Amino acid sequence: MTKKSKRYKGNLQTIDSKRVYPVLDAIQTLKTMESAKFDESIEVAMVLGVDPAKSDQSVRGTVSLPHGTGKKVRVVAICEGDDEVKATNAGAIESGSGDLVEKIKAGWLEFDAVVASPQMMKKIAPLARILGPRGLMPSPKSGTVTKDVEKAVSELIAGRLEFRVDKFRGLSVLFGKKSFSVEQLNENFEALLSSIKKLKPASSKGAYIRSMYVSTTMSPALKVEC
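Predicted structure:
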C-alpha cells in the first residue's frame, strides 16, 4: 500500500467521507485544501451504467471547455499541402505527411494529440498499433480526422477534450487546474457533464451515471451528486 503524505492526511481530515457533496461545494472544498508545489489538475471520475462491450454503448465524445484545461497541449497534424501551413499557424508543433508518419514509427511520441486530414487515413493506418494503445489514434468520431485540420488543431490547443469510457465502465476527465476560480471550474464541469449526458446510449438501462467523484492530482476524492 502506498504511504500517504502528511499533506494528504491533513486534507483528509477536512472532508466528510460519508457526505455526497453538491458539485459546487466539492469544488470549493478542493480549492481550500493544502496544495502541492505545483498547479494541480482537477478531474472527475465516474462509473457509467453502460456495457462497453456492446458497440452501441461505448460512450465516446469530445467537449470544448469554456475556460480550457490549463494544460499545454502539444498537437501534431498529419496532412499535406496548404493544410500543413495552416496547421502550423494554428499552433501544431509539427505538421507533415510521409516524413512525420515515419518519425512516429521510429518512436517519436512527444505530443498529446494527433489530427489528420481524411486523405491521410491510408498513410496513418500503420500507426494504429503505436497510437491506439495510447489513445492518440485520430478518428472521424472524435473529430481528429477532419477536412478542417486548422480548426481541429486550434480547438485542441484551446482545451477541447476527448473522453471515452473504459472496459470497466469508468470515465476520468480533467476539467481544469486548481489555480482556476471556483466559477471557471464549475462552468467547465457543467460543460463536460452536459456533453457526457447527451451521449447516453438509448439501449442502456437504469441510472446512467452510477457514481461520481472529484479530486485534485494529490487530494482525497470527494463523492458528488450525480
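Summary: The CA atoms of residues 68 and 209 lie 24 Å apart.
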